[in-house]
Predict the structure of Large ribosomal subunit protein mL39.
Amino acid sequence: MAARSVCRQLHRRLCSAAVAVRPPTAEVRSHRNAVFSREQARQRALYPRVEKIEVAMQGPGLEGTLLIMNKGMSTPLSCAQHLTEYHVTNSALALVDGELWPLLQPLTHSCSLTLLTFKDSDPTLVNKAYWHSCAALLGQVLETAFKDDFTVELLSTPEVPVTSGAFCCDVVLDPQLDSWTPSEESLRSLTRGAQQLIYQDLVWEPLEVTPSVAQEVFSHSRYKLEEVEQKAAQNPKGRVMIYRCGDHVLLSGGPLVARTGLCFQYEVTALHTLGQGSWGLQRRAQGLSLPLQLQAHHTVWSKLRQRAAKLVEVPRPEEAAPPSAAHSS
């Protein structure tokens, strides 16, 4: 245990040194992609030969349906592709033996499987994942919205229910932008960036990793290094979930839906200044979205948008504490 603690401290010091001079955004994204791809290939190589598993499908009209799939290779989406086009296009998330499961995460054992959609009798789990996904999309847009001359530090996504009226993404922009106030055109530009990602129908690739791998992925971000440790400590398996969407890799506190194309109406509604925090001037970007299956008339959307522009009050998360404060307490 002592040796492990020393190694962890050494790793943290090395990472802190690495983030002292942050390279350009494109280089950071390339590094994160490379580590993600390497770990994904390593995990896939754990299943060198094809082993069959039984997947018992659950849900309306699927009782008694048994699929023979490939262990470590087949995903819930693979199972949906053996059913109907409806299941392929409408499924957003899955339950595997009652556990929430990303649609593109490989199945590792024989199980029961339920595909979840936005039109289920109780869509609570899907709606929550959708809100997380919309916030993740907003973070992806913010990270590339500014020139390489300006740094963007994505903080943890605030836990806000769908009933709050807006999804949120907290961020610290480069100190050079502290006096900048976004105009309506700036918000429209961010919205267009999100809509482009939606149009591309990009998948959110899930990958469960050890903290050391996640820390290598986010080695250029002091905030993410701390967040990795905290999320690993909260996970019973001591692991963390990361996702890749296009060339953007993110750390997620909850499951995301299958792909960006499940979003339809999407608008960035506000960028509020919260004040100075441990990492700089903290801002809260907010937005509103409805999935493809639940579209709203423009008059209804206008009212929802007005509500989504108002600041969503969220208690400051413990994750916002700087490393020195976290270790001194």
In short: Residues 1-20, 318-329 have pLDDT under 50 and may be disordered. The CA atoms of residues 80 and 86 lie 9 Å apart.
